[in-house]
Design brief:
Number of strands: 0
Radius of gyration: 14 Å
Largest sheet: none
Distance between the termini: 30 Å
Shape: elongated
CATH topology: Arc Repressor Mutant, subunit A
CATH superfamily: Winged helix-like DNA-binding domain superfamily/Winged helix DNA-binding domain
Structural class: mainly alpha
CATH architecture: Orthogonal Bundle
CATH class: Mainly Alpha
Order of helices and strands: HHHHH
Number of domains: 1
Number of helices: 5
């Protein structure tokens, strides 16, 4: 049995366009496996701020957990 799934490309590009510069920056660190504390140290911001950006990323991309978030970020790049 074969199952096909089609999705409009505009939808993916719209998701990418909705991300702020900081969210895109943080998403690259998340994909590379860094924790919120490590990202906070690198960017000289609070880890709580990083957690807030991560939460917004998850909401915008419709991810339920970090693994799903990473897979959706990789698809957007």
């Amino acid at each position: 049995m074969i199952l096909w799934h089609f999705e409009r490309l505009e939808r993916v590009f719209r998701s990418l366009a909705n991300l702020t510069v900081r969210e895109r920056e943080i998403s690259t660190y998340i994909v590379n496996g860094l924790t919120c504390k490590e990202i906070g140290r690198l960017l000289a911001i609070s880890h709580r701020t990083v957690e807030a950006h991560r939460a917004r990323l998850m909401r915008k991309l419709g991810a339920k957990n970090t693994a799903e978030l990473v897979s959706k970020i990789i698809v957007l790049d």
